[in-house]
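Sanity check record (used in CI):
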Amino acid sequence: MLRHFSRSLRFQFLIALSGVLLLALCSLGAMSKWIIFPALHKEERGIISQELKRVERSLALAQQELLAQARDWANWDDTYEFVQGNYSRYREVNFSPEMMQEMRYQLIAFFDASGDIYFLSGLAPDTGEYTTCTRTLGNCAWMSPYIDSIQLSLEDSSDQQRYLFPGASSPAMVAVTPIVRTDGSGPSVGWLAKVRLMNEEWIAQMEAVTGLPITIEQLPSSQIEPMTTIEGDTIYAQHLLPTNVPAINISIGTQLNRTHYLASLDTIRYVLIWTACLMLFVIGFVLWLMERIILRPLKALSVFARQASGEDTRLDSALLCQRSDEIGILARSFEQQLTRQRELNAELLNLSTHDALTGLPNRRLFDQELQAAIHETEARSQPLAVMMLDIDHFKLFNDHYGHQKGDECLQQVALALQNVAASHNFLIARTGGEEFSALLPNISANTAKQIGYQLHRTVDQLKLPHKASPVAPHVTISVGIGSLDDSSDISPTALMSTADQALYRAKAAGRHQVMVFTPPTSSASAYTHDTPL
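Expected output for diguanylate cyclase:
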């Protein structure tokens, strides 16, 4: 009897399903320990690293801005004449406490061709008192550390430069540039330096720009602080930046709340527990269904087969569907349901990856294609460009014409953009209300710029009325272009950030134009654009 039971399908199914359950539970445990939880930790650290890089880029832009302001003053004929002693009213016309406070300058220093002090103007850090002088004595004694640092830098290089300086109360940004004529002719007659403190007021402004809490500390070079620290539901990260004083570094840091991460972690744990419980239930339910729906009918079917033919008969799906009994009905019903399920899955996939209003791919599909394109670009060393397009003043359009007309406008613009995309074989998606994104694999930024002009002109040619627009009497778009070479890393977020920044600058420049992002390390403007005809 026991031997007969061990050969039965019931026992074999029980052993097989028990093995599957044990294997699945072990797999869930292993997956959680070595894949899911490490992936969550890696993702969290990637996010904080990305945010820290954003803070560092903002600091670099702030230094570049200060250098540009110093260069504007230094490349000015009035400054050129002033340092030569030919413009006596230069101080009276250009310097005041209000100007220093408004521009957030702590110190402006002029040096002659030999590097000696010519004129100093500044606000005392402790009192805020405005002082001007030609030597670092008396009320100007506080300027001495900055002046010594600047003069030392002039000995190392006669070209323009920017660096961080560890001040007494707070670090400072320093920008130094030669003084030349406006047209660049003639030799340099000296240097101009501007100093801006990285104090609480500056930090508050940077926090407003980045949307992140920022901390800045001055640390000895020998002190090595942990780059990432996790305390409870807060994660803190910092990076050390060099100064012109080798013994001192500046630590710039930010922090993020881990509430979302911890909630995700708890959710995954609950999912794993419920999955294990569900598997137990499913296995028990499957055993019951097998007994009731499969084993009993199969036993009856085998008895009938033996009675009909005297030997076992193998039935394939075609034979089952041809039967007129319950098994045949079940097989045909299953085949119909399977066909319908495939159709529904195809429809569901289309709905989940395309925008219902315009029929364009949505953000989900765009993000998937972007990730795949980046991987392929890395593998084949090909160019990759992206675009972000925005309908100019679309809110004013909706307010003026109504949301129904707004939907019609979106549909017409989307169709026009899709026609261009189809002709050039690239992907364009609706990724926001009036925002579209384009993915242009194997296309350089210059080529993408020409395509951007074509998209720009195509929308213009629609001549959709937009009386509320301050840009043009018809609907227009602004285009921002970025490429893989412009990003500091190769993540999709960083790549799209370049296009987003270019779009932001296109809007800031007046909209209705195409702008290409270029890395901020360039000594010229960080963005190039042209307005298409």
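The first helix runs from residue 2 to 6. If this sentence no longer matches the regenerated tokens, the check is flagged for review.
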